[in-house]
Known about the structure:
The protein is α/β, with parallel strands linked by helices. Helix content is 36%, strand content 19%.
Amino acid sequence: MDIILKYFPDLTEKQIELFQQLEPLYADWNSKINVISRKDFSEFYERHVLHSLAIAKFTKFAGKTKVLDVGTGGGFPGIPLAIMFPDVQFHLVDSIGKKIKVVNGVVDSLGLENVKAEQIRAEELKEKYDFIISRAVTRLPEFVSWVRKKVSKKNFNAMPNGVIYLKGGDITAEIKPFSKRNVFVQDLEEYFDEEFFETKKVLHLPL
């Protein structure tokens, strides 16, 4: 938990309390339904919570923004961001029902009223969103093909509506098809000191 306070020292008492609850909640759920790698769990706050919150370093969502988290798995990056932005509406989706069961369990325990979780494929959704976020569920061109029609045309954030994607490694080939769309790539090592973030990036693709 200290690593969260290191980079986000201005959290409210309520936010600190909610972030503190995450590890025991996920430890309990993970013992029943494995949504986080066992070898990763000792680095839970760094590799899952802080990694998710890289998006909060990258941009600040305005109140009433609608965010879709595709392939949320156990609720990342959506749940940490929902704690960080209580005035923003988050829709977390995954095609695997047991993962959504975990997400709903965590959301209910935390009392997060700004999160809806659903077992559904992104392509089946009818709603529109300001931003579509994900932690590297697939290659970027394929991801964009799933979600490009789900982005609202009405912008009211500082950053244009579109995809915000957490990704690791060399992404040169993945972003090549979008070069004319002005993809912005931010290295996470500029935000965080830990070795884990040396090859991690967040990118923004306006749609």
